[in-house]
Design brief:
Layout lengths: L7 H19 L9 H8 L3 H7 L3 H24 L7 H10 L5 H7 L2 H6 L4 H25 L5 H22 L3 H6 L12 H19 L1
Length: about 210
């Protein structure tokens, strides 16, 4: 069992270790089965220590999704800043490709509503929403450079719409074991959703519509 963190540096390290343990657990289980006791065990701390950093499971999830959200936008923004010739299709590809290998993030989108509505403080939720808006605004600025027909307000609206699109697609991209079995039936396979592919198709349609309506 780890000793108690004594200074700010050690506290930051302990917090990061807890988040990493939480992410490992999330990759192994469902939201319903995700418990603070299991996180504490994975992090090698007593549950009382865990509660010094995160008072509820939802607070821990909010911190996790903040990190995962930043990871997605870091990749998308870096690619949007690359040189070369740009087209609508290249922009769409960048935004959809940034989801590749981010299963933990897209799965977490399925429970975001539960996280934001329960057991987090007003201050924590304000901080999360401000972080989200900051990332949306930065990406919107980069999109304006790659899609010159977008006005500033339209670019931000586009990023917000795409965020809602990703969250909605996530809800149907991770079927329950029973539904997964149902969707294996030959006549129902068409209802299976690939988040990345559907996100790309829908984003292309939205961008084309915004260009036409300018």
């Amino acid at each position: 069992m780890k000793s108690r963190a004594r200074n700010e540096g050690e506290k930051l390290e302990r917090r990061q270790a807890i988040l990493e343990a939480g992410l490992r657990l999330w990759n192994e289980t469902s939201y319903g089965d995700f418990t603070m006791s299991a996180v504490a065990e994975k992090a090698g701390v007593v549950k009382g220590t865990l509660y010094l950093y995160f008072e509820t499971k939802e607070q821990l999830f909010l911190a996790l999704i903040s990190d995962l959200l930043a990871g997605y936008f870091d990749e998308a923004d870096a690619r949007l800043e690359e040189g070369g010739r740009w087209s609508k299709s290249r922009v769409v590809q960048v935004l959809s490709d940034a989801f590749a290998g981010r299963d933990a993030f897209t799965r977490m989108l399925t429970v975001l509503g539960n996280i934001c509505e329960h057991n987090v403080s007003y201050e924590q939720l304000v901080a999360f929403k401000r972080l989200t808006l900051e990332r949306f605004t930065r990406t919107a600025g980069l999109l304006r450079k790659r899609l010159p027909f977008l006005r500033a307000d339209a670019a931000l609206r586009l990023v917000m719409q795409l965020g809602a699109l990703a969250a909605g697609l996530a809800q149907v991209s991770y079927p329950s074991p029973l539904l997964d079995k149902v969707l294996e039936l030959p006549d129902l396979r068409v209802m299976r959703v690939d988040l990345q592919a559907e996100f790309a198709a829908a984003t292309a349609a939205i961008v084309a519509g915004m260009e036409k309506a300018r």
